Protein 1
Amino acid sequence: MVCPLHGATASENVRLKDLGRFLGWRDNMLVGYGIVSGLAGSGDTSRNQATRQALANALSQFDMTVTQDQIQSRNAALVIVTATLPPTSNVGDKIDINVTSMGDARSLAGGTLIMTSLRGPDRKTYALGQGPVSVGGYRYDANGNLRQKNHPTVGIVPLGATVEVPVHAELVLQDGNMNFVLKDADATTARRIEQQINQAMGPGVARSLDAKTIQVRAPRDALVMNDYVARIEALEVRPDQESRVVINERTGTVVAGGGTRISPVTISHGDIRVSVVTEYTASQPNLVSITGPGVRSLVVGNSDLSVEEPGQSVAASFPDGTVGNLVQALSKTRVSTRDVIAILQAIKAAGALHADLIIQ
């Protein structure tokens, strides 16, 4: 399958919020460990000392003194709990949490996560998680028979964590400016964003520091910060893209921008087929009644080598054009996708393809 894309036009503008983000506007990772209880005998075995210690510590919070040796239940499992805290979160907000088994539990299906503290890199607790674990799979085994679907030792608790500490993104740096960071560094795109912001917000508001960062002057009044950022993110520019041709030889797929240029080139693509056929025959000795060492049938192989050259499958000259024009012309001549891939590789080797050739 060959997919030539149309060339970029002036109408293909993209919002700034789709091209990058303001420095400081990022998600925050949270992690913690906890206990999933209520499992139907599919939890951690008694060999997991960490699970028994965690259960003993949990019971001690309720004034129950239980030693690790007294805990033999397989209805509980030790798990790692992870979550993503949005850049702006208030107390009481709900977020999803992921639960993964740490021990040798066979399944977390039917379990409930006991209240777990979710901490950030600074070891502070930002959220508390608890609730029934939803597992998109199962595992059942009996008498040596096993039935399993997906990964039953991984689950989620939808909206299972409650934010306890508010988080606010700090967009303004100490020098009173904000930095807009591009997802893909490109000097031309950064220059266009600078010009668009200065045109919409005023001269001298933005300045491109490098191919990835555009410095934007922050407003003096913090109360208008949200409106200020929203206006900038809604601005549209036409990003500059590198010319690339992506080839997947395994699936026979070619994806190329229609604006990718090709210098004048002449293509002559032939097809030579070589086949070797071998027939084996046995030569039987005349005195078959005589037996002994060295007396046996002789297998003789006769090989027939044939070479077929049906002629040139493609012999054409293409003027200065694009990859899209080349692919369309090759398609009209009924050239297979595999041959198109070979032709593009040869054009790149000849220096006529002005794009990066990426082979997957």
Note: The chain has three domains: 11-24+170-237, 28-163, 245-359.
Protein 2
Amino acid sequence: MTPTITPNTHRATFAIGDERTARRVVDLLNESLDDDQAAVAAFERPDGRWDVSAHFAEAPVDAAIRELVALAAGDEVAQRITFDTVEAKDWVAASLEDLFPVPAGRFIVHGRHDRARIPANKLGIEIEAALAFGTGHHGTTRGCLLLLGEVLRSRQPQRVLDLGTGTGVLAIAAAKALRRRVLASDIDPVSVRVARDNARLNGVGNLVETICATGFSAPHFAIRAPFDLVLANILANPLRQMATPMAAHLAPSVSVILSGLLPHQAQGVIAAYRARGLVLRRHLKIDGWSSLLMQRAA
């Protein structure tokens, strides 16, 4: 396996005593920082306090971050912020030993070392080459798999798109469950290669077509449209921006599963797709992340 080395990222972390203040800080940071500049999240600790973390692609200006936090939580909290760097590392090799199978309805995501332990009544998805965000251990991936299972209980989509496929988990799940072709796209050529390799590993290499594309620019989308099932586990801003071009590629009976959203971002995404004729059917919240099932309004 080729090592997957992630670049250095910069991190700011601090603790807050109550949920309301934590969410106020997260909201302010998300409003003040671009989605492609930073990722901010808050999680409750067993003692009732909240841990807040912000990850940056580029080193932030410490004073500016402290000033934003002080506005929402006060100077004392702002002065407790710790800034550090998460060094480049082969996270695949480092994390596989601790990777445990993750059930998500009829699906179960696992590593090679657990291949023999998958129950016969589950659809196993074997993933060995990604960070937790793409292995099923992340709340967004699990939310999408649960919603996919819900859709498949009532219908059998014919044309499936996995937009922003990452490691290919969702595309593989759909291909295994439906035994139909799935188009899987990502803007990152490394992700496209990983998704292709994982599809072959799971025996659906002939069903999952992987392409490198930004948005809906590639001709493959028009050729394979209209889609009656779309899975898009990305981020809030790209999802809002792609609502209009996505709508042009959808079948009348479409189900659209969206994730990569913090709970406070969900309403904005729901509104963007409602304006294109889709209504919310389910809203799952798992591990501090939201996953949405949208369908055409009757």
Note: Residues 1-5, 129-133 have pLDDT under 50 and may be disordered.
Protein 3
Amino acid sequence: MAPNDSAQITGETGETGGVPAGRRRAARYVVPVAVAGITAATIGLVPALASTGDPDLPKISAAELIEKIAASDTEQLSGTVKITTDLGIPSLGGLGGSAAGTFAPKGGAEGGGSAAEPTGRLMELASGEHTLRVAADGPDKQRLSILDSAAEYSLIHNGDEVWAYDSASNEAYHATAPAGAAKGSEKGAKGKDQAAPKDLPATPQDFAQEALKAAGDTTSVTVDGTARIAGRDAYQLVIKPKQTGSTIGSIKVAVDSRTGTPLKFTLLPSSGGKAAIDVGFTKVDFSKPAASTFDFTPPKGAKVTEADESKAAGKDQAHKAPKDAKDLKGLGTEPNVIGEGWTTIVQLDTGGVGPAAASKDMPAQGREFMDALGDKVDGKFGSGTVFKTRLVNALMTDDGKVYVGAVTKDALVKAANAAK
């Protein structure tokens, strides 16, 4: 196997492996997992495929590989993606399932909306193991299907039509999307919200695009060998935080050597153990999918819910999780961002009581869940509870302040103390 350049990307010399700073800035893509999304931002995926031997590929630097990803123009593909989640959230026992699964409603009669409503169904990817079939043909044609043992859920975008169908309930969801809405923006040409949800990543490309956004002073990026993924030769790009206090240990992106398309994305927590986020193709084909792949007609007898009806009833908002600090305004005061890079913490004041008082009114199972997730802490700020996952943690003080980030418990307590 040919050795690969392991030059780090830093902000100290103005150059990256001989690449001028201007060019480096053009490839600023590495960013920590969004700290405000908590559960939604920490969707994880299982290893896609065991390596079948490391291929011998030409030497490439980290900067060159990042530019190869940025320059990738792959718009046509189809394949199978394996998904799992391991956030370390305890089971709720009698309540059934994991915490993530319990708090990700599935719609239907239980959730008050259609069982086929996309955002609620895609939230299910936040827990357990899943197999997806994906296909794309340019910015206006995509299909994603979640395969269960006895059912299938599909989301199809074809031009200005968006359909979602749940075979288990025989329910369909229909919306319209502006032409070209999927390309580069969540809003279409007329500024209308895109009907096909983009909140939750579901393929290696999605995760890589989120993780490769701002490679800067807080990040080390290297090329660490090669791999064979889904029958394709790939380079391994390794991204690590330089800062201490992050819950993220490293991110590895397997990049197709020919197309520059990410084939696998793996995130390891700093606490060790198996991957918390790991998504990869088990099969992939870069040829044009058949046009019929994106055709859909509701089966006979299917219940069809129009997006306008769901929106008017407020049902399409029921499952949406915050994507960033801007989405947290409704939880209290204007969010305050503390720090930068991998140790960024979002602070806000709910103006209400903290977890100690709130838990008094909870049923026994609710208190049990809160206690299982939380550690009682004290400091200059007073007292509170740190609620933990393997990636994103949140400190809720007893006077109603919240500190949340992909950082350790100690980092949250330090930030709360400094804010007093």
Note: Residues 99 and 170 are 27 Å apart (CA to CA).
Protein 4
Amino acid sequence: MDRRERLVVAVAVLASVVPFLDGTVTTVALPAIDRELGGGLAGQQWVVDAYLVTLGALILVAGAASDVLGRILVLRAGLVGFGATSLVIALAPSIEVLIVARALQGVAGALLVPSSLALITANFAGPARGRAIGVWTGMTSGAMVLGPLVGGVFVDLLSWRLAFLINVPIAGLVIWLLARLGQRDERRPGARIDALGAVLCTLGLGGPVFALIEQERLGWAHPGVLVALAGGVLAFAGFLLRQRTAPQPMMPLSLFRERDFAVGNIATLFVYAALSLNGFALGVYLQTGAGLPATLAGLASLPITVIMILGSSRVGALAGRIGPRPFMAAGPVVMAAGSLLLLTVGERFDYWWQVLPAMLLIGAGLTLTVSPLTSAILGAVETDRSGIASAVNNAVSRVAGLVVIALLGIIVGGQLDLAGFQRAAVATAALLAAGGVVSLLGIRSRPRADPAEDAAAERVSP
């Protein structure tokens, strides 16, 4: 890479690191937040899902906003918003204020990831794009897994509140790098933002999530639960209808006519639901069940970080040459095996024999999966639609986490004790295996270095 390309990757990586790091720091901080502000399991679920509701709903709007306003402007707005809401979270006097601030933080986070990844797809092509995406994947996924360690150190030695301030200097650094990049913002003439679609999507996600979390406390027969569930389902149906009829939809359903795009997003749904479930269950149980301090609970997943940093760019480049299918099929199955190894966790806890082998397998499987998955999805669409394609895929991954955390009480039986942790491990393995099977049966085996080349080949073929 030349200097400009390295700067593009640095901006894309750091802008994505902010929300990834924050999400994982939050997970390890949940027990400390509960001890200070209260809320119980439902409160912990809301701390995670309030962020994911707005992120999952508005990340689609952000893809369109990048086309209307320009990627650079949207990135700057997201960085400023994320830094500001991080300050509010650090000062939150109650669990209610913290949950509201997390929801607003999700709005800012929605502006970051699709715009940052779109910078890579707009500045790289062919195998170079695969390698750049591999670097982005390794670093952002590494941040996602390194977050529990960083959060644990802050929780144990300082305060969970200070852990949320990590985002502020990173956001400032990215704003400075954007100024150094000096790239001209591009806007698509005539592009518009679908405000009605955004409202319907937010209600469609928020209603069922409210019902799934609060039914533990209120019961399924409670009018608030029933209204939220029914209203959410109707709103999401309205959102899908809106996407079929809107002149400029947030989530163009035509994208799903591309086989790799559609199948890749189904695989994303399974894989990221599993990762969210595993991250939440492991981060909380190691502290509340196994009795580890937050720092050691964060260190538990460090092997995954190391493996991903070392291997993601190589896997991305290799998948660009031989195609993503073998990696996307094998990776989730390897992770599923690692998740099942967590069933060895017992009353007498031993990290080295009960958790470390699982972390090594999950790290290897994640390295095989993420970069080829991202490349397959973005490679299935034209370059000028990469922003919205990235936004859709990121929305799918966030919605997957949103739904599985909302279902957590049902999955673990209402309590995250040893039995609940083991139920979560089995559910994680089942979701990962499903992701591998979907990829094996649905993804095309041949590489797609450049969608434009495929289109040209189809035009000249008999």
Note: Confidence is low (pLDDT under 50) at residues 448-462.
